[in-house]
Amino acid sequence: MGDEKKGLAKKGAPSKAPAKKEPEPPKAEPKKEEPAPAPAEEPKKSKNVLAMFSQSQIQEFKEAFTMIDQNRDGFIDVDDLKDMYNSLGREASDKECKELLKEAPDPDKLNFTGFLTLFGEKTSGTDPEATLLNAFKMFDEQDKGVLDEAYVKDLLMNMGDNFKEDEIRQTWKEIPVSGGKVDYPTFVRYIKRGKDDE
Predict the structure, then answer these.
(1) Whole-structure pTM over 0.70, yes or no?
(2) What is the structure's pLDDT at 28?
(3) Domain 126-192: CATH architecture, name and number where available
(4) Is 106 within 8 Å of 144 (Cβ atoms)?
């Protein structure tokens, strides 16, 4: 009978072994799913950044980036910023340059996509455009979306940072004027997104 008990114990042991193996597959599955979303997020950011600007604006940013990237390695770092300052006749400390790079995704160096992202965050948000629009609306008592051309010139020359005559002439090359009226919502759009936006 002792042998029969041993035989039963042996038969019971294999039935318990598979039960221990069952919890292992669920542990492996979450590990496979976690890393998958991270690579998908990067291209979305790049596409959104490029969509914020017209092709001519991107070209202008590329030229500015290249001017700052003094050693032409494709990144702006502390040394590039110091060299740029030196070329302008000013010495900048490491601390100042690191402060400038602080907002970059990688605080040690900034690539072109990061450069565009920083400008996109600063120039393409809805709040700054809305702020400009609201500033014009303060002077539009009839809320028509237009202001008299002479009135806008007077405001620019006599309020805030006074425009000079040559600055007015330069602005009027870009400003949308029709029938003596300035279309300020379109002008704000030009300021924020450029004329090539549409």
Answers:
(1) no
(2) 46
(3) Orthogonal Bundle (1.10)
(4) no
